[in-house]
From TrEMBL:
Annotated protein name in UniProt: ATP-GRASP peptide maturase of grasp-with-spasm system
Superkingdom of the organism of origin: Bacteria
GO biological-process terms attached to the record: SOS response
PANTHER family noted in UniProt: BETA-CITRYLGLUTAMATE SYNTHASE B-RELATED, RIBOSOMAL PROTEIN S6 MODIFICATION PROTEIN
Length: 327
């Protein structure tokens, strides 16, 4: 009997657990593995045979399909006495070793059907935007620079500018407070504080949006939601994630023009992506602007608010593919 392998986090993960509930409902066999299992469960990787066995289960033989959701992370591996900087070095090097083990494990499972594919784990935002532009999608202008003078010139050309992380959207904890990174407009005050030279940073043209469209894409199918905010209000944030819980924010099921869908399909095929969470802006002049695709992005809000039931769709897709997959 084939089995689906789920790679995720130990704690609740909104893109994983609802899918697992549907797999349980359908009584389809699966195995969820978290990175901590590699330290607490019996693991054998036989490089001669090219086989991976975890807790007595031969993953190489029994797994046909892999559903990947944010598996890797740094662990506190060392549990001995505190050795100060040496402890930090042991943990750092142990995590490097563990990541090498994981990479080999993934290599031995490379012939399985992965969603998303392993090549998508480290997808680069600017490479995606460059590719989208080449395929004919409208894309906001952007620069990566270390120079304030170049930033000033870019702002002069496009008028309004936003800045956001080039790759990782992280958060920081200090005492009882948590700080997160969001897409932010470049204000005059912020511009004045920027030094003449700074760390390589991403700046992008701010598009005058009518509304934003969130899309969950799976194997050629689109589940799109328009996120509507009152036009008379100037208090909404540039980063729509900050407005998700506001009562005046509405989610509406949306049908993209066929021309836009075809170009997105071309992009996903070019990037070798089966799935992804896509952000698009509908401009006030009628144009659609592609912003980004996240291969392991979240989809639960549009799923529930627009009645798509995406976790059910994913589980059924996984089951169908797993049954038909031949290893």
């Amino acid at each position: 009997m084939p089995m689906i392998l789920i790679l995720s986090h130990k704690s609740y993960e909104q893109g994983t657990d609802p899918v697992l509930e549907w797999l349980l409902y359908y009584k389809y066999p699966f195995r969820k593995i978290v990175i901590e299992d590699l330290l607490t469960t019996h693991l054998l990787i036989d490089s001669q045979k090219g086989e991976v066995t975890l807790d007595g289960v031969n993953l190489t033989k029994e797994v046909h399909t892999v559903f990947y959701r944010r598996f890797k992370k740094n662990l506190s591996v060392y549990n001995g006495i505190d050795l100060g900087n040496v402890t930090n070095k042991i943990n750092k090097e142990s995590n490097i070793e563990l990541n090498a083990v994981i990479d080999f494990l993934f290599f031995l499972l490379k012939d399985k059907l992965w969603i998303p594919q392993t090549t998508a784990f480290s997808i680069n935002k600017e490479i995606v935007l460059f590719t989208a532009r080449k395929l004919g999608l409208n894309v906001p202008r952007s620069i990566v620079t270390t120079s304030k003078s170049e930033l000033i010139e870019f702002k002069r050309q496009v008028k309004d500018v936003i800045y956001k992380p080039f790759e990782l959207i992280s958060y920081y904890e200090t005492g009882h407070y948590t700080y997160s990174c969001y897409t932010t407009p470049l204000s005059k005050a912020a511009m004045n504080r920027i030094p003449i030279k700074f760390f390589p940073s991403l700046f992008q043209e701010l598009i005058d949006a009518e509304y934003e469209i969130r899309i969950f894409y799976l194997d050629g199918h689109f589940y799109s939601s328009a996120v509507l905010r009152p036009q008379f209000s100037n208090e909404h944030n540039v980063d729509i994630k900050l407005d998700f819980d506001k009562i005046e924010t509405d989610w509406v099921a949306y049908e993209l023009p066929n021309e836009v869908k075809e170009k997105i399909k071309q992009l996903m095929n070019t990037l070798k992506l089966i799935t992804g969470s896509i952000d698009i802006i509908k401009c006030k002049d009628g144009k659609y602007y592609f912003l980004e695709v996240n291969p392991v992005g979240q989809y639960l809000a549009p799923s529930y608010l627009c009645n798509y039931n995406i976790p059910k769709i994913i589980s059924e897709w996984l089951i169908e593919k797993d049954k038909n997959m031949k290893i």
